[in-house]
Each structure stands twice: as structure tokens, then as C-alpha cells.
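Input for the complex:
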Amino acid sequence: MKFARVGVALAAAAIVVTACGGSGGGAGKALKIGISLPLSGSALASAGPADKGARLAIKEFTLAGYTVAPDVKDHAVNGVHDPQQGAKDMTAFAADPTVVAVVGPFNSSVAKVQIPISNEAGLLQCSPANTNPDLTKGDAGKQLRAKQPDKINYVRVATTDDIQGPAVAQYGYQTLGLKKVAIIDDTETYGKGIADAFAAEWTKLGGTVVGREGAPKGTTDYTAILTKFKDSAPEAVFYGGVTSTGGGLVRKQMPQAGLGDLVYLGGDGIQDGPGTTDGSFINIAGEAAANSFSSVAAIAEYPGKADFDKKYQAEYGEAPGAYSASGYACAQIVLKAITTAAGKGDITRESVRAAATDTATTFDTVLGPVKFDAVGDTNQKIISLYKVDLTAAGGKGDWIFDSQVNYGN
Amino acid sequence: MTAVPATNDAGRARSGAGLRPLLRLLVPVAIVVAAWLYMGPEQFVNAMTRGAIYALIALGYTMVYGIIELINFAHGDMFMVGSFVSLSFLTRLGFSGAITNVGLLAVVIVATFVFSMVVMGLIGVLIERFAYKPLRRAPRLAPLITAIGVSFILQNVVQLFYGPFQTNSPKIFPDTWFLQFAGARIPILSLFIICVAFGMMVALQLFIGRTRLGRSMRATAADRDAAALMGVNINRTIAITFLIGSALAGAAGVVNGLQYGVSRFDDGFQAGLKAFTAAVLGGIGNTVGAALGGFIIGFIEVAAVVAGYGRWGPAIVFGTLVIVLVFRPAGLLGQQLGERA
Amino acid sequence: MSVVSDLPTRRPGGPTMAQRRSRLREISSRHRSWSILIGMIVVGAALPVLAEIPPFTLAQPANAWIDGFTNAGVFVMLALGLNLVVGVAGLLDLGYAAFFAIGAYTYAYVASPFGNSILGIDILGALGGPEKAGIIFWPMLLVGAGVAALFGILLGAPTLRLRGDYLAIVTLGFGEIVPIVFLNSDALTNGTNGIGGLARPALPIVGGFSGIDPWLYYLTMLGLVTVIMMFCYRLIESRIGRAWEAIREDELAAAANGINTVVAKLMAFALGASTAGIAGVFNASKLVTVSPDQFGFVVSFTILAMVVLGGMGNFWGVAVGAFVIYTINNVLLKVLNQFFDQTGFPILKDIDFIQLQFLLYGLALVAMMLLRPEGLFPNSRRKRELHTAITEPEQDELGTAEATTEEGQR
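Predicted:
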């Protein structure tokens, strides 16, 4: 084993040498914030804005004596997020001593392989979009942190599906007054999880789930499922999943099956911008998108929204996506932790991690004040609900904010 | 026991004529009636529509296999490219929503079919010329791998042009047109698609069975060398096979766009896999078998949903395939032959 | 294209060079296992050194390289196993990832709390908690191989009587079914969430493996690849190996010569599957989580492409092919992107090489088949076969060479 250790030491030395050589100008000690997101293929549409948000925050940041730069690693393989590549990228971040924190990942399946690695490395990770409860809570969360169970190193700014799913159920049952619902999920971690949470809450409220089907990504024909639903006369269809796995297509095919007048409900997976955005829910569903509702596991009317939109527009020449502010907020939290660590002495992975996961600290982010609980989940348990307005976005349709519910204390 | 020498290769690709004709007629009829009673008219039409698309794609697989014994893996992607060709055609012409004028609708649909089938047929011939023809005398695996490569290329070229997300295909056929039938709601579009598919299959059968070119295709499939000696232009015959197979994939692409309204660069894989399964199920090399296999797969998938096993759909499809192959290794209509020597 | 021959007199380097070469080849084939061992030690030592020198260190830290090499090693194992099936025995298996999945899930059942609760035996607890329980990794390599081989036989027994093309589609279907079964059997497999919290491997003195220090995984990978490679060479030089080659060349003739083709084909299938099982156990122990989406058709096709590009039938070639393709796909393209982005090179900086990767991959496959079908590192016998077949004039529809070689491939 000795030569292995020597190898590691050599590697570390080589990195330090190149890193110092790289920063050249003497602007201070070089630090890097890793960004680990799927950034090519079909994954780019949803994760790209989070990356841009995070990079914008890092660009704006200054700290005397340090230069902080993003280190972006894309773990999409063949256009889809790839857990194995995500694990490898996390190992690469862990091996680079100048990386003090990571923003990402986007998908729960990637988080599941990354958290054991970042936990062992004591490397802070902030996800802008993960909503799967198992990543932090209960036994499943503990298993991911097996190496250093007491050191929480993973935090997230999105609240979990066990809050988001029920929130949609409550909205549908109480606000919209629906009683019978049929559910389709895309058989993936996010989609099935949120559909299960929705179904449980719906039944608890007194509603009836009249149909439950699953159709994996790549399904193009939902007519058989929809025809089956029709026989049980639901008042609404809930879709657990994202647009690219079928969220828009199901809605688009409902009129043909004679279900065009039904209410359509979904989570943040179908909330992906106006009809002018290629491949978005409203773009795919077209006129059928009317009467659709979705949630976002984030505050909609955040205080700095107008300001942020302007900055983002100026930087990238486009409007922010659904997760731009979340990516920005994650970077803000990491940067705040770095500042705190610098104030206390040296900036190390451990000092940054400790500063970010301190349950007493309130972070002032673009999303508003954020605090993390004992397992790293945000206290900002706000679910925003949106409704499709087909007259918005120049007649192409857009999601219009309807209401937000605070499930926090 | 595995390797029974083929006694006679001639007619290998055609169905086993004279094989218990009564049974061959009765069994399908019984199955169709049972399916109708089990799933009801609406799901029956759904299954037929889905099956029609699989059948159109499966024809291309089976024709190419019949003539050059190549599993043309890129064929599913040809279907995908076909759907993009048709959606681009419609979008360029400025159509986006339903066309309610029957005359205009008919003209536009015919034009779309013609355009898409011609373009796809030509693409198919080009691919054959540059990717498969040089490998005609190479070992089995070489063209197969090439086909996998072509499949990657097609997918990624489309992705470069249209992006990684779903692209809308104009739903020019009005959703509001349907028949009321015994309390069921049957979309006219579905009936139209089923008719188109049957029409093309009949035309294909007539072409293969009654024309000179069709005869040279059959001859080439049966024995390429002997056909060449008899004066059949092998290269041209193979090119025509690709032309027709790819044109049918193009037609399937048009149908797909009309019915589902969306296309994506990776649509071809799943559809191709199921269509290929259909071709094998029916007896690969046999055009009637491929069409039959396509409809069977459509029915299996819809029946799985009706029975509450929608999540298991693909597993049931492939499971059926394995069972059929074990008990009837050459597929339902294929001639039972051992390993070709 | 000229027929490349192995005859020494044709070599431009002159006879001495050729003689030296053939002597070396003779020694290496007489002491096959030793030469594999030495070769692997050289490669295994050279790679980390490479990772420490400038052009490579600029791309990513050395540990990340080591980790990447380890992942590439997983694909090398898979490619070696598939080569037994496709390259040596000539059976086209398009659902090879299924056996990879079976190996991974086998490990997950034994080495995770969820798996133990399904089995009803607290294996982790009995071994003294998740840290120490990693010791079970080592016997599990064999168990995983065995379980995968069992499934290989189960799948192979009914289907190997079929013609080659039917086998391809059945294996393709099997490759689709297995992830669906893992996905939908929620109670048994935790469905789409997969099984997490797997124990990392452990050794008595060294202790547990680490997720951030890739060295122990790297060394284990080298060991496994070496053993598998030795095993493969032993196999193809044995009676069964000859039988496989005979079947690949001409199944009828093989059967006529007294080879039990069904048993031989089943052996190829089972042994190929067991290699994938080992790779699955190793990979699961490294990712510490298994889920159905890790084993899609893309994995099967990638491995097949590796075997083809490396050169079917040649184990060293396939290993190198797998390694090179993995590294290009997962490292080089990303590095190219970063490099051109940072330097602001005109035109090239706007190209997303990662998005192009499967396009390049497809072009490589087609070009390879058209120009060099024997692969980058061909097996010499295979190369001769391929080139006789291809360079035969096309007009000669009834050529005798075609009748003997090409027909034999069917």
C-alpha cells in the first residue's frame, strides 16, 4: 500500500503545482467550486439553467485573498444523466484539493452514488433540484452517509417530494374540488416517488384513485392507458414524471381519447417554461395544455426575482429557467459558507462544510432566507402552484403563478 | 439435432404453403374475436392502430432480412427520421393545427406520404450503397455492426438538427372527428391509419407476387447466386428492397406523427425493437408474417394495459417472443428449417 | 487493400527483426499465463505514471484518472467476457448487460441492509457491521459469477438451438426484460429506487476500500482483469476453446466431427455470463448502489462495439479496445470541450464534443467495418479469414474462396 500513498501524495503535489501555476496573476489562493450537472443531450434543457445560475453567482463573488472559479463537469452520457459518470466526477472533485464544495447534482439517481463519495471526502454538496426524500431522511439517508454518519455534507434548496406530492393533492382536492383522479407515472425515481406521495395524500383526504398506470420513458402511445382511465370516469389525471419522459405527450393525447376536458395535475417535472421553449410541457401539449396545474418545490414570489431576472438576462441573453434561481441560491450558500470559513481562519473542506450545515445559520439567498435541518433539508418548505394560461407568452401559453403554500414551521 | 441440413433453400422466404390451411384461417379469426370481446371496441382499435405502425416498420426489417440476411438495426431509426421528414414538410408548408376541410386535408396527407416515402426511400438506398453493399461478402457480424453504427449516426444527426427534446408534429387530423359505435368512441384517424397500413400491405404483396421486380426479389432471396445466373440484377434488386422497406418506414413515420403528434431522436429504438420482434414473431423473411407479428405485438401491449400489467408490457412482449421461438423457432409463418449450411 | 500476411519474408523490417518477433511470440505463447501477468503488471504500473505527467494532469487530477482507469477496467472485463461469446464462439449476444445486472444485484442482496432483509438473513450484522462485512466481497465474486452463469444457462438452454440471428433477438429481448423485472418488482428489488448502502470491499489487514482513494479498487480491478485474461487464454487453448472456434467457423462440420455443439455453446454462454457477473459484483461494490437504470441497452451495445473495434477473438485487442473507447468517451471528449472552451479556439470552441460522442462512435463503427473489419488489434487467423473474404472480387459471385470462407461464417 505504501506506493499507493506515495502516488496519492505525488498526485496532490502535482495538482498543487499546476494549480498554483495556473492561477498565475497572484490574485490570491485559488479555490474551485465544482458544478456537477448533466449538461448535454436531453438533460441540458432542465439542468442547463441551474448551471448558468450557479456560475452567475460565482462570477459575482469576491473575497479578498482568494479567487473562486467554477469547475464544471457534465455527467450526461448519450444525452442522459449517468450515475456512473456522476460518481466518477465526484471522485475527481474529491481528488482535487482546490475544490471546496460542489453544486449539484440534478437527479436523485446521481445523488445516490455521489453522496457516499462526497460524504467520505467531507466535501460539501448543494443540490438545486433533488427532491427525493430518501437522499437525506431515515435509514436510506443514513446508509448514504455510512462513512461519516455525523457529518452532514449534502444540503438541498428544493423541498422534498413527500411535501410536494401531497401539496398538489391538497390543491386538487380542496381548492379545485376534485374527487376522482387517475395517475400515470414514468416508472423513474422522481416520477414514481411523487406519484406515490400524491396518491397517499389523495386517499387520506377522502378522494378516490380510480386508476394507476406506469409507462416508461420512450413510450409514445398512451391511448390504451387513457381509454382504460375513461371507463372509470376520473375528474383529473395526475402525471408523475417530467415532460421528456411523457408529461406533455399524455396531455396531448387526452383530447383524442375524449378526456380533453379533464384537469391535469403534475409536479415540478412538467413546469418547464412557456410554450415558446422547445420541448417544454406547454410547447408539446399545445392547446391541450389548458386546465393544467403544476407545482414547484420552491418559492415563486421570491423577493429578489425582478432583480435576478434582469441580471440573468443581461448575462446570458435569455430568461431564467425553472431552476436558475435554485442554482444561484446553491452557489450563494456555498459562497456564504466560504466567507464564514475565511472569517474563522483557514478555508478547508471541513470548515466550509461545517459552516454550510450549521443548523443555526440562516442563509440569505435569492430564494429568501434558508436554513437547513439536522439532515440537510431546507426549512423553506414552500410549494408554489401554477396554472397554464394559454393567452400568456404571446399566445403560446405560460405557467402563471396561482398560489403558494408554506409547509414550514 | 440442431443442425438439420436444409434440403431445399428455394421458397424459404415464402410462407409454408399448404400448411393446414383451415387452421391457419380459424386460429386468427378466433383470436381476433376473443380480443374484441376481451378489450372492447375502443381498445381494439387502439391495438390495431399501434399494431399498424409496428407492422409497417416490421415489413422493412423482414424484406431486408429476407434478401440479404441482415438485421438492419438502423431501420427503427429510419422510421424516426421519416417522422422528422414528415413533420418538417408539414411545418414548412405552414400547417400547425387541425385541417377541417376534407379536400385540403386529403391533398396534404397524400403529399406528406409521397414526400416522406420518396425521401426515406432514397436515404435507404444511399445507406445501402455506402454502408452495406461493400460488406455483402463480409462475415455476418460486419454489416450488423455497421447497421448499429448507422443507427447511432442517424439518431445523432437528427439530434444535432432538432435538439434532444420532443419536437411537435402538426396534428393536422382533427381530434374531434370520431364515430360513435355501440357506446364506444372510435377516432376516424385510427380507422384511417389502419386502412392506410392495410392498403400498403396489400400493394406490397401484389408487387412482390405479381411483378417482374417482385419476382427477382423473391429469386434473390431464395438463392442469390442462382438468381444472378438467371440474369437478375442483384445490386438493383437489393437496392429496390431497401427503397421499398425504407419508404414503408417513412410511411410509418408519417402515421406516427399524425397519431401521436410528437417525435424525438431516440423514438426509433423502442419502435424498431418491437417491430423487429414482430418480424421474428411472424417468421423473418416473410412479409405476411411481419404484418401479422406487428398486429400481435400491438394487441399484446394493449391487452397488458387492459389487464393491469401495463408496466410489464415490454417484458410480456419479449417473453412471448422467447416462448414462440422455443416452440416454433422459425416464427409463426416461417418455414421450419434448421441451420442454414 | 492488400492482404496483410504474417509471413516473415514479406515484412519490410528484414528477417532478423521478424525472427526476433516470432521468437518472442513463441515464448509468450508457451508461457501464456506468465506473459499475461507480466503484461498486466507493466500496464498496471504504467497507467498511474502516465496519470502523473503533464498533459494528463492538466485534464484532471491523478486520482480521477486512476478512478477512470478502474471504471474502464470494468468494461475491459465485460468486453473480455463478451468476446468469449461473440468473438470466439460466434454467438451474437445483444443483451449482455443483463448478466452484468444480475451480478450487481447478487452482490446487493448479500451486502446491503435492504437485501439482507429480503433474504431474511442479517449477513452484514453477522460479519460485524457494514465496515467489516466488506470481506464478503471476495467470495461474492465467485457467487456472482455462478449466479450469472446459471442465468446464462437458463437463457441459453432453450435458445441456443436457434439460428444465430434468432439468438441475437432473444438475447436483446432478455437484455430488455431483466431491467424491467428489477424495475417493477418493487417488494423484492426496491424498484426504481434501487438498492443502496452496499458494503464496500474490505481486506483483513488493509481495511475497507475507500470511495475517494481509488487505489484499492484499481489494484483489485487489475487482479480481476489478469485472472480473467489468463482464464480466457487457457480456455481458448483447451479442447472447449477449439470446439468454440470450430462452431464459429462451421457449426455443421463441428457437429459432424463429434463436437456436442449444444453443450459447447452453453459453456460459452455460461462462461461469458459469469465474467459479466464478476464485473457486476465489482461495479456494484464500487458504486455502492444498484438501480435498474444502470443496465440499459446502451451498455450492451457499447460492450459489443468495444469487442468489434478491438478485434473479435483477440483478448488483448479487445481489452485494449475497451479501454481506449471508454477513455475516449468519458475523458477525452470532455477534455476537448474544456480545452477549446478555455483557449477560445475559433469554431472548435462552439462544438460540443460530448454531444457528438455517439455520432463519432457511429462513424467509427461504420468506418471500421468498411476499412478494417478485423478490428484495431486483430487475431491473426481471424484477419486472414476476413481479408480473404473481402478482397475476393465481387463480380466473382460463385468464387471458390467465398464458398469456403464466407459460407463458413454463417
